[in-house]
Amino acid sequence: MVLGYLLYEAADLAYNLGRIGYNSVRGTYYWYYGQEYPEVERELRTQEDMEKLTERLTKLEKLLEDKSDAANSKL
């Protein structure tokens, strides 16, 4: 039972140290080359796309209102 606990703790420690090392190397790489993380770039692209779609929707709503106003004024 104690051996299982020790093995579990050793595996957990190895995983956490590996993860910390990986994140450190990855962060240093992106910092040194002045790049953003791919996750951040993807999020920024998503926000830009949403802004473009919102702008297009606003333009379409305005066109629809203008057409309906023109149709109402002819009646």
Tell how many strands the DSSP assignment holds: 0
User: Structural class, judged by helices and strands?
Assistant: mainly alpha
Residue-averaged pLDDT? 93
* DSSP helical segment count: 2
Largest sheet, strands/sense/barrel? none
Distance between the termini: 88 Å
Strand content: under 5%
Secondary-structure element string = HH
> What is the oligomer described by this structure?
single chain
Q: Fraction of residues in helices?
A: over 70%
Radius of gyration: 28 Å
Which runs of at least 5 residues are low in confidence (pLDDT < 50)? none
Tell me, what's the shape? elongated
The number of domains is 2
Give a written overview of the molecule.
Helices cover 91% and strands 0% of the residues. The N and C termini lie far apart (88 Å). With 75 residues, it is mainly alpha-helical. It has two domains: 1-35; 36-75.
Tell me the layout of helices and strands:
Elements: H1 2-32, H2 38-74
Brief synopsis:
The protein has 75 residues and is mainly α. It has helices at 2-32, 38-74.
What brief labels describe this structure?
2 helices, mainly alpha, elongated, 75 residues, single chain
